[in-house]
Amino acid sequence: MADSGVHRFDARAKVIVTLVFIVCVMSFGRYEIARLLPFFAFPLVLIVLAQLPAALLLRKTLLVLPVALLIGLPNPLFDREVVAQIDGVDVAGGWVSMLSIALRALLAAAASVVLVAVTGFPAICGALERLGMPRPLAVQLLFLYRYLGVLGEEALRMECAYDLRSNGRSLSIGHYGMVAGRLLMRTWDRAERIYLAMCARGFTGEFVTGVPTRFGVADWLFLTAWCTLFVALRTQDVAQRLGSAVLAVLS
Hints:
The protein is mainly alpha-helical. The protein folds into 2 domains: 5-119 and 214-242, no CATH class; 134-200, no CATH class. It has helices at residues 5-8, 11-26, 41-50, 54-61, 65-72, 75-78, 93-119, 121-130, 135-166, 176-200, 217-235, 238-250; strands at 82-86, 89-92. A hairpin with a 2-residue loop joins strand 1 and strand 2. Helix 3 packs parallel to helix 7 (93-119) and helix 4 packs across helix 7. It is flat and about 70 Å long.
């Protein structure tokens, strides 16, 4: 992990800021689009300050887009009320709400991906525990995160084994259920072996997520500045005011 100023902020401050960001983004109405756009400044600024690989983070963020579009796909069928006009073309509310869902999903995913990139998932679990989350739940989250890697490794092994034995034949639809069951059993067995190895090394149900830190002045400034900005963007139409100011200057 890199060692920028953003990485060195207390994990609790970054978790709280991200939660406030997501709450503000998700609280917008279904027809809001322009007021969501200024919120993209948060993940972009952190990416620049932390010197993160923007292309990699963008690919991970875009993974939620098909799910968001699938959720909003029925909206144009049920919400046909005209809410806007673009060059004389009527725009139904369903299309606007679908775009709003996609933007909010992208913003929440971008903030979450950046949080993991600048903090690390173990540190996030430790921060959630220190913020009041029950320890068993924090440990379960960390186990889930680590065993997703185990699941991915077993899936890659099975795919490699099938490619070596199939002579180029694709997997038929009827075999997917069997493959999924075998994958689950192989992952379960390997997870059991990993757990037994952890117990043999003295695991007692508590993960060491790093040295506990204390809130400093920089952490309070980071927390206060971003949360104040998010609340301001949520309560004030900043996009409209900026647009009016630009038009006033140009005129």
